[in-house]
Structure formats: C-alpha cells, structure tokens
Amino acid sequence: MTSEALPRSYERDDKFYFPDGDMFLAAEGVVFKVHKVMLSRDGSMFHNMFSMPNASSEQTSEDNPLVLQDNAKCFRSLLWILYALPPEITAATSDVTSDNIYRLIDCLKLANKYHFSAIQSWTSETLSSILACLLKDNDKEQQSESRAIRRNTRDILVRLSEVVINATDAGSVRLTSDLRTVWRCVIKKADTLQELVGILRILEEHDFRGLQGLAYHRILAKWPSWRKSSLLNRDQKIKLLAGYHSLQDTSYSASLLNELSAFQHSARCRNQEECSDSWDTFTTRLGSRRSHYPGTGYATRSSSGPIDIVKHLRIVCNVSNNLTEHRDKDLCFDMKDECIKNARLQAEAVLLKVETNLIDVFTL
C-alpha cells in the first residue's frame, strides 16, 4: 500500500464512494471513499495501520488516496462483504452462481492478505460447502446455472487453488482438503487422455505440485499406451517413466505398509499383537498385484504395470470406515472398535501424505 497521486484518468467507484466516508483508497484507477471503522473490523491490517501514533497525520484525499496493489474488482468484493447486510449475504450464498463463487474467492484472497480473520473463516466454510456439491446434480430449477458452473469448474478450482494452496490457517486447511477432493474427482472423471493432459498442463502451469502427481498417476493407471502419445511432451514422458519404475519398486509398498501399521491401540486393547496382526492381514494385500477384499465388493486386478498404490490406500480407508458397523468374518478383523478407528485415521494420514507427495515419485 502506498500513498501517491493518481493519474488524471481515475474514476469514482459507483457503489463504494460514500459522501460521509473518511478514507480514500484506490485500485487500478478506481477511487473508493469508505469508512475507517469498516476497514478496521476484525483486527485487520487496516486496524493496525490506523492505530499507529502517526496515523492521524497521514490524512488522505481524493487527489492523494492510499493506493492498493489490488485488482479493483477484487477489492470491491471485499468491501461488499464488509458492508453487506445479513439478508444480502444469505441471498448471495444461497444463490450459487459462478459470479457469486468468484466473488467469494476474491473475498477470501483479500481477507487472507489483510488479515480479516472472521471473514477468512466464514468464506472458507462457505466455499467448502459449495465445493461439496459442486459436482453433484442440482435441482431442475437450477439446471441451467448448474451447467454454467460445471463449464467453469476448472477455472473456479484454479482461482481457488491459487488462494488457498499454501494456506496454513485452520479454515483454509479444511478448504484445501475439500479442494483436493474435487480436483481428484475432476482428474478421475477425465474420459480421454487429451482431457487429462489438458488438466495436467493447468496444474503444471500454476505449479500445483500436490495435484500433479495425481494426474500423472491417473495416466499410468488408465492409459498404458501413453508412451506412444503425441499429446505428452518429452519432460512429461520422462516423469511418467520415472514414476512407472518407482512404483514397481517393492520397497515403496513395504514402506507404506510399515506406516499403516503404526497406529495407536486402544487402552482397552488386551492383545495388541493379535490386533496388529489382524490389521496387517488386511493391509498386506496392498502388496499383491492381484488383490481381492473379501466381503467388500472391492477388487483390484492388474495383469501388467505398476501397483495402483493410491487406489489400494483409498480402499483401505473406505472399507475400514465401515468395519465397526458391518463386520465380516472373512476379513478376520479381531480388533476393538477404537483400534479400527485409530487404524483408519492412520490410513487416511498415509493416503494424504502419499497423494500430497506423489509428484516426487515421478521426479528423477
């Protein structure tokens, strides 16, 4: 943020230029006249700036506003949420349109930048809810808008990923997890190699390393003829070849099996060795190229190519999630419910670690 004279071509914002405002700000040649009390909400960076001893001597005017290095539309979105009445916010969030989603993403971006913590939490939670139903079928009344959102899904995911991919606050961590789930669905639903390579290029262009590995892994799992494809460039083929041989290495599977076994037993578990053996009996099936999971309906068969480690880990997570309610003698799970829960949490942690770092498998 700097205080400098604007070029003569600036214009006043149509909505956020209040006659009784006491603060002039500018972004991309647009001047906003707003209230310091609104910008000072939530212990923001503006609050800290206005609280400085010499703040009163740094008065701004329309000819000498505080210039922000932000997109004008993006800053307008932040002002919208600062000034919006509860009914306006409810209406905007219940009417899930592409424009409203983009506005929420802009709000989150500047809330992160200027430390509006309450807005960060609220927008993260709202966007998580939207992501949960983004790829689901909508009511007939919303069918037209639903198609529009689906057409913009990748752009929405890219813009949201740019905002939260490296965030560490609690709300954004949950949002990042939900975002990864939607990206995974988009990657999985790619019907052709051309479509998947297009997704991969987007992920590489924006340096979303934690997601690139999923796309490379999907290519290996679904298109064994990738070597002959002209859609992939030389560097991409080298990464795929490196990943192919890395996933063939049995030590990679063995290290995952060891991590899966490192769960915490329940205090009521009287025979931890038998409990661990029961869990290992299930998880060691990950090392089989032709695996079947009795009583679950899950089967993974691969006559050639590397073991689909990611799919196997997802199966472990999904099956163990239902074990406490649906016991199956064929699974030989002689475990306490709490032990199963802890083992499942460990499996989910291993899966997240594998998916996040999967690109390393495809790196020489």
From TrEMBL:
Classification via InterPro entries: BTB/POZ_dom, SKP1/BTB/POZ_sf
Tree of life domain: Eukaryota
Start and end residues of each BTB domain: 21-91
Coiled coil (UniProt feature): none
TM regions (residue ranges): none
Provenance organism: Panaeolus cyanescens
PROSITE patterns in the record: BTB
Protein name listed in UniProt: BTB domain-containing protein
